[in-house]
Structure to design on (920 residues):
């Protein structure tokens, strides 16, 4: 009784040591990408600000009835980024909006990658007519203009953050599915898969214990890259007035600015900060994603630095 | 140009690029607004044509006067057809249109109109009493033709044209609106051939045969409506060589076009736009008392004439105390100050103060003032007490959670919705703001609790009152009635019938005021504000233009064709550089520098990164 238990312990501690080692190796490799570090740093700062938003600006920053300023004030000491048409502080709204933009971006990307991975592994593993059918469906989603599909979904469903997450998630998975399927095919052609099958490993075992861990690096990189896309799509949908009107998001702020006529009346401080914030976060995620990709994917070759 | 449709131009493949473009568009727009890419007004064209371009945003519902109900469409009809009578630009009194004279018989039941002899259709035929008789008869006999203006002819018994210059209308009961029949008279020889008036939109054959001051020459859905002046117009031809209603679905784009001189006129300005345009050179901002009311409508339980109920309005709204409480918890003064930023007047009765003869104000003890404490008391009385979670719940266990229909195209709806959520939230009432591009579907189906509502009021109030009578309800749940908000109130209907039959102006005004008082008490239509008409035009393109009323009136959506008919083109001068050019220049330079710096950095890093590979 004790022998297998200690054996298991050593096995698991070995596994943990191996994982620690690979994380350390990953970090050493990642550290060499200056752009990746830059992106990571930016993300850490933004995430910290978003998490601390209730402490920094307070949750009544969204309230229109208790708005402290006059309408569309230009930047000043009291309001570093000026005010919106209700007299709310734009800096406060920008910080508060980071929460929604990040949440939606992360969750939508996670959803999209989850769907993509599932479809990709299943199609790659089973092959045959099943693969053909799923891949044709994937192709169909791939050639559909994502934004149009997302707009249709966001229009027919009720306006909420979840709708936006769902709309982005179910429209942006095909790329991941194709990548994961290719990787699955590559992994499954290796001899150890054959051995596992010979030892009695079923479909579920092969897919979850052997294929999934091997496609994970790819999935991770894809997720990081997908987030920036998801954030941009969220901003687009909100800008088009398809977001939840009750929450503050960066895209929603751009939409509000447009509705207030800030563009033609030259109130740049209403437009520029959310626009720059969207661009900055998308850039940070892309930088991280590229770095992760080049660390994990040996095919991309040794980076220049 | 059409900035709202950015994503429609999206190609499927470079998605990230397109998405990035959205953020960039916003920035680019600022730059575009401030940069007069085209400093000299484009209005002066090489061939010396003087075009008056008007920026519009509302879609035309139909070009058939039998069907058209939207402001933009009725404005078009005023330009291309004549009504029997018109309203004076100074004080709204009835003046000759197609008819030169009109008088009732002593028994008030027969009206005789003398039709003018100097009005011709644009195809050369004479406009006669025969055309007018045919128009009215068609509306009386064909239900499709009565869609838009049926309320005017509902009381007509017989319409005849004994001679080309004489029109006789016999009534069932006296009707006070006989000098204010807002019905465009159509050319019989063109319209007789049309089969189904419920479907014919009059948008196939151009130019459209008409006899108004302008002739409609071309129309493309949501792109433009073009007019040429009618040189034979009896009151005198308009002075511009062309009139174009050009579509800008985005208000900011319209204002940018105005700043650049691409359009001569833009309306529906936001307070921020009005403030910045007021400082601009060669642009005059016209901030005039509007002819609209802006109301909070509550669903009284949608039903049709056959007594069937439909829709899913919240049952709590059938309780008058709840309706009163909602209005008492709505701070109209804040709405005026914060949302309209002073470009509106606080709401009182149903008819705006601009029509002083009919305007009514509730007296002190009738008025529902802003008073959250009273609202809470009213809700308690009505049996909606706050539960532990702070929500008001009825005896049936259903919480007071309302939906409000909001026009996604109107920023004011959304803004006021935000305030209401907070005011009512404190009372324990939930509010979901449903902003839709197309509010008509849920509205006609009665699937709403509350709605933001507004109508432009004519000098004669008959029409805006008629839409709240039982007669305006749809015949069956499947039909569309003229009703605005499914209101059917016996007392209101009685007063409506009385005012319709009252030829004495003072007595009729008194009845109209009683109707407004009744409407106010029922609480189905709570007028929050009378928004001003905030509009602007280029003084280097339009030298003079008639507002209505002439002193301090509006330009777009008048009760007549005065503004566009009277507009005098300015002599073209190309000295205007625009005051924005210096800021534009600065932004342009900064952008260029930033781009150049970015390029240099990019190239440098590329070179460094490929240094090992290069020989």
């Amino acid at each position: 009784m004790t022998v297998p238990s200690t054996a298991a312990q050593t096995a698991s501690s070995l596994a943990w040591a191996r994982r620690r080692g690979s994380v350390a190796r990953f970090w050493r490799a990642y550290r060499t990408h200056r752009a990746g570090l830059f992106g990571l740093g930016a993300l850490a700062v933004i995430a910290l600000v978003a998490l601390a938003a209730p402490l920094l600006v307070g949750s009544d920053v969204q309230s229109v009835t208790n708005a402290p300023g006059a309408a569309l004030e230009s930047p000043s000491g009291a309001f570093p980024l000026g005010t919106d048409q209700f007299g709310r502080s734009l800096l406060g709204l920008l910080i508060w909006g980071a929460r929604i933009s990040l949440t939606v971006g992360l969750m939508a990307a996670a959803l999209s990658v989850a769907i993509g991975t599932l479809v990709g592994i299943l199609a790659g593993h089973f092959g045959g007519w099943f693969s053909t059918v799923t891949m044709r469906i994937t192709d169909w989603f791939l050639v559909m203009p994502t934004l149009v599909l997302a707009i249709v979904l966001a229009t027919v469903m009720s306006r909420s953050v979840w709708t936006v997450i769902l709309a982005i998630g179910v429209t942006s998975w095909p790329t991941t599915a194709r990548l994961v399927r290719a990787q699955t095919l590559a992994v499954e052609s290796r001899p150890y898969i054959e051995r596992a099958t010979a030892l009695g490993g079923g479909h579920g075992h092969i897919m979850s214990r052997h294929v999934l861990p091997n496609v994970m690096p790819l999935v991770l990189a894809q997720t990081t890259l997908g987030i920036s896309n998801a954030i941009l799509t969220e901003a687009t949908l909100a800008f088009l007035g398809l977001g939840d009107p009750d929450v503050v998001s960066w895209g929603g702020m751009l939409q509000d600015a447009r509705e207030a006529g800030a563009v033609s009346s030259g109130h740049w401080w209403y437009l520029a900060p959310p626009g720059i914030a969207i661009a900055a976060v998308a850039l940070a995620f892309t930088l991280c994603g590229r770095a992760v990709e080049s660390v994990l994917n040996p095919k991309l070759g040794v980076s220049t630095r | 140009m059409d900035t709202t449709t950015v994503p429609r131009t999206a190609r499927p493949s470079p998605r990230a690029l397109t998405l990035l473009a959205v953020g960039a568009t916003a920035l680019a727009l600022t730059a575009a607004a401030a940069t007069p890419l085209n400093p000299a007004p484009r209005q002066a064209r090489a061939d010396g044509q003087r075009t008056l371009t008007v920026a519009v945003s509302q879609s035309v519902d139909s070009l058939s006067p039998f069907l058209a109900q939207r402001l933009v469409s009725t404005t078009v009809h005023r330009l291309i057809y004549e009504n029997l009578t018109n309203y004076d630009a100074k004080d709204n009194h009835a003046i000759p249109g197609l008819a030169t004279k009109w008088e009732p018989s002593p028994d008030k039941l027969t009206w005789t109109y003398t039709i003018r002899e100097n009005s011709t259709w644009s195809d050369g035929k004479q406009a006669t009493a025969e055309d007018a008789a045919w128009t009215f008869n068609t509306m009386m006999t064909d239900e499709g033709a009565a869609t838009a203006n049926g309320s005017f002819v509902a009381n007509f018994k017989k319409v005849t044209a004994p001679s080309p210059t004489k029109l006789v209308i016999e009534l069932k009961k006296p009707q006070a609106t006989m000098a204010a029949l807002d019905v465009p008279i159509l050319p019989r020889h063109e319209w007789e051939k049309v089969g189904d008036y419920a479907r014919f939109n009059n948008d196939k054959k151009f130019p459209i045969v008409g006899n108004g001051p302008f002739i409609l020459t071309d129309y493309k859905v949501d792109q433009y409506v073009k007019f040429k002046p009618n040189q034979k117009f009896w009151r005198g031809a308009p002075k511009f060589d062309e009139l174009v209603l050009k579509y800008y679905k985005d208000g900011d784009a319209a204002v940018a076009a105005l700043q650049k001189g691409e359009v001569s006129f833009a309306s529906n300005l936001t307070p921020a736009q009005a403030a910045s345009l007021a400082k601009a050179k060669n642009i005059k901002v016209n901030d005039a008392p509007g002819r609209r009311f802006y109301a909070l409508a509550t669903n009284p339980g949608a039903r049709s004439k056959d007594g069937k109920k439909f829709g899913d309005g919240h049952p709590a709204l059938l309780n008058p105390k709840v309706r009163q409480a909602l209005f008492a918890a709505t701070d109209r003064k804040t709405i005026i100050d914060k949302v309209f930023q002073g470009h509106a007047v606080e709401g009182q009765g149903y008819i705006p103060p601009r029509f002083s003869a009919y305007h009514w104000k509730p007296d002190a003890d009738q008025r529902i003032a802003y008073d959250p404490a009273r609202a809470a008391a009213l809700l308690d009385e009505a049996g909606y007490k706050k539960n532990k979670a702070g929500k008001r719940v009825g005896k049936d266990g259903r919480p007071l959670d309302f939906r409000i229909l909001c026009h996604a195209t109107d920023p004011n709806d959304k803004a006021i919705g935000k305030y209401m959520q907070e005011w009512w939230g404190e009372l324990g009432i939930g509010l979901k703001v449903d902003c839709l591009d197309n509010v008509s579907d849920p509205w006609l189906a009665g699937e709403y609790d509350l709605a933001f509502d507004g109508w432009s009021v004519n000098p004669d109030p008959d029409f805006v009152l008629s839409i709240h009578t039982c007669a305006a309800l749809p015949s069956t749940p499947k039909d569309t009635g003229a009703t605005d908000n499914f209101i059917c109130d016996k007392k209101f209907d009685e007063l409506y019938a009385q005012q319709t039959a009252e030829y004495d102006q003072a007595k009729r005004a008194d009845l109209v005021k009683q109707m407004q008082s009744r409407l106010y008490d029922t609480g189905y239509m709570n007028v929050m504000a009378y928004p001003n008409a905030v509009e602007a035009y280029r003084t280097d393109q339009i030298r003079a233009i008639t507002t209505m009323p002439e002193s301090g009136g509006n330009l777009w959506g008048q009760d007549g064709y005065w503004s566009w008919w009277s507009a005098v083109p300015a002599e073209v001068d190309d000295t205007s550089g625009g005051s924005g050019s210096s800021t534009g220049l600065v932004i342009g330079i900064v952008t260029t520098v930033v781009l150049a710096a970015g390029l240099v950095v990019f190239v440098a890093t590329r070179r460094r990164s490929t240094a090992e590979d290069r020989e």
Chain A has a mean pLDDT of 88. DSSP finds twelve helices and no strands in chain A.
